[in-house]
Amino acid sequence: MSKLDLFEFENKLTRKEAKSVLIAYLALDTVSNNEELDTDLIEQIYKSWRGCLSVVPFDAINAESELCLRQPQISALFSILAHCTNHKSGDATVVMPTGTGKTETMLASICSLPVKRALVIVPTISLRQQTFKKFLCLGRLRELKAINKNTLNPITALLTGGISTQEELDLALKANVIVTTPQSLNKADEQLRTKLFKECSHLFVDEAHHIRANTWELIKKKFINKPVIQFTATPFREDRKKIEGLFIYNYPISVAQEQGFFRPINFKAIYEIHEEKADRKIAEEAVSRLRQDLSSGFNHILMARCNTKKKADKVFKIYQENYDALNPILIHSSVPQRDKKLQAIIAKKHKIIVCVDMLGEGFDLPELKICALHDIHKSLAITLQFAGRFIRGRDDLGDPTFIANICDQNVEDVLKDLYKEDPDWNMVLKRISESRIQHEIETQKMELSASKMGADIPLDNINMALSTVVYEVDKANLNEQTSFVLENHEELISKITFSDSQLVILITKIEIQTKWSPQGNFTIPEWRLIVLYLTQKNNMLFIHDSSKSGSRQKLAQCISKKAKLLKGDNVFKCFGNIERLTLQNAGLNRGRRGPLRYVMYTGIDIESAINELVQGASYKSNLFGKGYYNGNKVSLGCSYKGRIWSMKSTSLVNWMMWCDDIGQKLKDPTIDPNSILNKVLRTKEISTFPVGLIPIAIDWPDYYYKNGDLSEINLVIGDEKFSLDEAEIKLIDYTSNSIAFIIQFKNIEVSYKYVLQNQSYVVKKTSNKEINIVKKDFSQVALHDEFSQNCSPVVYFSDGSKVFDSFHIVRPEGYTIPHIHKDCFVKFEWTIDIRKESQGSTKDSNSIQYVLLSELKQKNYWFIFNDDGAGEIADIVAFKEENGLLLIEFYHLKFSQKSLAGSRIGDFYEVCGQVIKNCKWVGELDNIINHLKARERKRINQDQSSRIEQGEYRSFDHLKVHGGRLKKEYKIFIVQPGLDINLLSNDVAALLGATDLYVRETTGKNLTVIAS
């Protein structure tokens, strides 16, 4: 308690304190400072508040002086008064950006209602002390002429710990206003805490985005029948849970900018891949701006923000060693004399502050105007709160400046525009904050229009899968529907209708037999969510059924007798306008013989990616794929029976928007469902490896490539840990029922055998060494067990087919793979040793790679990357723009077995395998970029030479931004100087033909072979 600085009030302050409670009263000049803090004074204060308000709503639009409450404060104040004087007030939320006067608005509300006894909860100790001092004198309300000058200040209580005695409680209840944190309340004796809540008439919550924490929830439940007013700048939380309470006022950032509450933001971008160099550059730029502002007469202070104490310690050394004249100070929870240092910061004795996160919620230091972001905030909510501390305006201060390294910032998608080159932070912050807040408000409007029957199901608890069946209906109105036909034995538990939407939610229950006793009397309840959504524009009825048990035809027909389920080929129109569609699986029906097995393959847009794929007597049963739609990554599946789905869960509002989009596609006459997939591969279950085919490559399981960054998957050998992209998986030998392979890392080699038996498989370790894979929970599993139990490696064969687990993905019987066409060859005059493949770290000019790179550098490529080595996509990856296309080219190099060119099949097995492994990257530009960036970062941070042959590291970002707007075209090259085109043999032509077909099916383009 002694740490609280009240010296500015001491001459007029009456105070009493117990162990965890301090109460204080600040008398006016006209009142004695020896007041008895008792119930009479409490009542006297309460009476002085009646009619004390001296502002009217008109003042919000007719402010004659700067010395008055500003427009957002007045508007919020009268919104609160209107809400609290309503016969059915309930919880309310006021949204005001940081720096627009939330605290003064709260003070004015408590006085003008007036409030008998207010409990004010804030999230942090520093904000608790700051708020307590504000209430002692009613802040600036008198200065701003918001209240009559004779309005008495409240007796204010400060709870600094858990109340444990009746004496402490009695002391706290002698106050008009009680200020505390949820942590202090949580420590209190439960019975005493309950009595405290009972004696408080109103609950005010500052920084309400913390309201969903368990402690906050317990507090709010005690105020169910009392007014609760929540203030926040961001009505959404990091954990995505909702903030309860009716939105009664929202002051947008755009208006705050227009009215001068916020100063315009300057943003300085640093682009540096090396972490330590980046910190030094950020510090240099930030200090330069600070000195410039100081010389202009602005008493600004620089804050260097870090994520961790360890990082803050490192960054502090940079400022201490180079800018000691500006008296830098380090502050975080572990530094000695922290409170003393905080007071020195408040006293403005330091021009540079290095801290972790921020100096606490509500910390008010307007001179903070230079922000060096050594680590950035990852979420929207915290970014908005943080930025608000720097951008509030004051006449004697200048504009704020933010400095950050924009290289490789891993943030929420919504924040990415802040960390690109030359962003306008003023526009971006406005756009992203207002769109998110508006989404919360619209969702609440929907909830308020709901009419519920039966069990009360909170709408914000509904997180539904994106799935539906669709009916064409004639003259239907869900709002007039009174009964719904359910399945036999299905019980209606709850029905929710909406006055302003053709939407109905049904919660049902049905008893189902247990699987372990299907003939017995053992049943378990299954709870089902059914959502019906009618669009009058398209005359379509969408039905979501969480049980996926059928089409709900009876339910549809009770709403519209002529309801017709949309099914068959037309359902596949849903895939229309999806860019770069990659089919993940395709279920097909083959005539009367039943469905084919699912098959997985990758590609870009379907027409070019599945070029000349073999035809079979089959028709579509169900398809599922991923791609891009309106610039966003999407997944979509649909069945000829009518079901449409996505691998995503979402809110009711977003499900309705998704249905609207699906409906437009189904009605679009320009979309041809038969252009989606007309040719298919087949899957066979096998007990032996294919006879007569040569395995040419082995690769990691497909799902390891899901995120495009193999460096995120870790392996362990003994005490050494390494990432998957540092290891190499290689074929060694094969028999009819086993394939031997090795995994190499540096000089370590572990051998395995992939064995087929009885339409099953197992992967065995055949050496003494053991490799473990690190799971998501950081546990370790032997790699051969992981392969055997979850997913096998993938083996590619000379005809372009592949085997994984115990399945062989093949073409229809009788299909003849054509030999490679002569137009696929490019002749090149080689004057170097064709037995030397890689240029190495010395950039050997007598190597195949060096010569090819030299050629490419003369051909106007944006970016050329040397990806040679374990975990490569290709030996060389090159990018350039040509005729409005972004060309992504993969070059696979192979040395010749002999010094003279000829036509040797052994020169091609391995490189053809590399090409086929490469094809999984086609259509995955973002993943390609992520992979290459990770490999370059690792090189640079190990102080090794760069892999970038042409361009620079920031070219990756240009590729993502500019390349994202262009249509993509992928090309794959084999470079084998050991082939003399004039001597091409049938076996080499056949192998290259199979590889070329695989490439054409994946990219829509022919394989190109650069030879001699």
From TrEMBL:
Record-annotated Helicase C-terminal domain positions: 266-449
One GO cellular component term: cytosol
Helicase ATP-binding domain residues: 83-253
Pfam families listed in its UniProt record: Helicase_C, ResIII
Classification via SUPFAM superfamilies: P-loop containing nucleoside triphosphate hydrolases
GO terms of molecular function: ATP binding; DNA binding; hydrolase activity
Protein name as it appears in the record: Helicase
Naturally occurring in which organism (per UniProt): Legionella drancourtii LLAP12
